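[job 4471] stage=fold_predict status=RUNNING
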Amino acid sequence: MLDNAVSGPATSMGAPTIRVHSPIQSRLGDLYERYRTDDSGQVATYIPELAKADPSQFGIALATLDGFVYEAGDARSLFTIQSISKPFVYGLALEDHGSAEVLRRIGVEPSGDAFNSVVFDERGNRPFNPMVNAGAIATCALIKGSSLHERLGRVLDLFARFTGRIVDIDEDVYRSEKATGHRNRAIAYLELNAGMLSEPVDDHLDLYFKQCSILVNARDLAVMAATLANDGINPLTGDRAMSLEHVQSVLSVMQSCGMYDFSGEWGFRVGLPAKSGVGGGILAALPGQVGIGTFSPPLDERGNSVRGVRACREFSESLNLHIFGSGFKLDSVVRRDYTLREVRSKRSRSASEAAILDRDGDLVKIWELQGPLGVAAIERVSRTVVTKMDEGAGHSHIVFDGRRVPAIDPAAAALTIEIAAQLQGVGCDVLLAGFAASCLIVLQRASESPLPSYESVAEALEVCEDSLLLRARGTAGGEGLVPMRDLELFSGFNGREVERLSAYLTVAEFGPGASIVHYGEASDAIFAVARGLLSVTIPIDPQGRRKTLGTMGPGVTFGELALFEAGPRTASVCATTASLCYRLGLDDLTRLAEAEPALYTKLVVNVGRSLSQRLRRANAEITALEA
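[job 4471] inference complete, writing C-alpha cells
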C-alpha cells in the first residue's frame, strides 16, 4: 500500500527510512475518521432484508482514469446496488434502441418527487426520467432478449464490464424486494394501462428487482464511476463498457436527476453527476478525472446515504471537483523523468566532483510535468512519486519541472504542498523549476512557507549538485585554491612534472565581473580554473543581450580547442566570483612540445580525455531527455 513504511537503498549518502502517504489517501482517511461516528439517519426498512444492514459500516473509494483505486474504511463490504443500477441499465436500453426511441418512452426531466412516486409526465405519457422507479421499470422493459434469463444475463454482463469483475445477486434481498414490492407493481401496471410498456409485466418487474439486488462495494462504484468519467472505457481492464455517445446521455441524466428530489441541491453544492441507492451507496463521476464510490447504510429523509452525501460534499469542496470548477482535463501529466546521474546542470565540474555526482546522482529525481494541473493530475504525480519512494528510491531531492505547465488549480496546489511537506519531513527536499509566475502565486497561496523555486531546471540542478557535494566532502566547490596536481588538465602529473610544467604557465587572477576571454576573438590559450566560479555566455542580439550557457568551477579546463585550431572563441567567459586560473598560451605550448615532448603528450591526452568525457555526457543527456 502507498501508506506503508518503505526504506531507501543504502548509499554513501545514508538514505533515510521514509514514510510517505498519498495526499489523496490521507484525504479519504480523514473523511472516514470524521464521519464514521456520525449516527444520523436510518437504514432502509421498506424492504425487510435491507433493515439488517449494519449502520456502522462506512467505506469510501476513489478510482483514477489510469486504473488506480484508493480505499478507506469498509470499501470492500458488499451491499446491494439498488437504484444505482438505473443509469447503467438506461445506457443499455439506449444501446438497444437508440436515443430517439428511448426518449419517446422515458423523459429526462427532474420530477421533484420522491423516487417511488406514482407520478407520470401526462403531456408525454411517459415517466419523468429513468432515475425514478417508474422510469427504471420502463427502462427494464426496453432491454432486449428472447427470455428473462437472457435479458438478465445481458444486464449482469453490463455490470461485469463496468466493475471489471463477475457480479452476483443477493438472492435474499431479491426475494424480499419481490415479496414486498407492491408499490412498484402498481407503477408497472399503471404504465401498462397507459401504454408506457407492454407485457410481460412480471418479467419486467423481476428483471428490475434482480438488477437492484446485484452485489457491489464502494470500490466497485468508484471503478464504475471512473469508467463513465473515462468515456466508457474501464480503467482497470481497458475494455469499453459503453459507447461514448450513451455515456454522455447517462451522465447528463445523472447530473439532473440522479439524487432524486435532492438532485438540485446536490448539483449546486457537490457538482458531480451522481446516483444514490437505498442500499447505502453513492456513485459520483467527474468526467475526464476521477470516479468516487461511498457506502453507508443510514439514509436521510430523501433516501440518500447521510455519511456518503457529507463525505462527497466535503471532498468535492476541498479539492474543487465541481464539474463547473477547474475545468482541467487530465492528460499525460508526466512528460518524462530522469535523475541527476543522467542529466546534470550547466555547471562544468572537476573530475572529482563529477565522480561524486555520478555516484550519488540517483538521489536527485526530476519530474518534467506538462499541461494544466488539476487534482487528478497532481494525484497521479504524487502517487508516482510515493510509489517510487515506496520501492526504495530514497531520493534526497525532487525537482518538479513546470516549464510546460500553463496553470495550476488551487486545490491541486494544496495537494502539491502537502506531498512536498511529507517528503521534506523524511529528508527529501522539493524544488520547483521553470514554473510561470502565475503558477507560483497559486502555489505560494497554498502554503505559508513557499517551496524554493528557480527560473530554470539548470539552476535547480546546480543547487542539488552543491548539496550532494557538500554532504559528500564538506564543500560545494568554488571555495579555496585547488592544487595544480588536482586539476583535470594536469591529471597524472607527478610533483616533479608539475614543477617543470609551471615554467610554461601564467597565473592569472580576476575580480568579480572581469572578462577572461571574449566571443569571436582568437583562441590563443588554454585555461585551468584553480579557484572561483566563472560564467560562459554568448551574445544573442545586436543590443548586447547575452545568454548564459553554463558555469565553471575549480578543476575545470576551458579553451582546449586552441590545441587543434586557432579559430575564433565560440563563447565569452567572465569571473562570477574572485577567481584564479592557470593560463597556457599557444606560444608556451609550442615551447613545451619542443622542450618537454613527454609532458606535452600527457597534456594532449588529458585534453582529449576531457573532451571525450564531455561528449559522452552530452550524448547520455540527449538520450535521457529524448526517452
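[job 4471] summary: The chain has a mean pLDDT of 88.
[job 4471] exit 0
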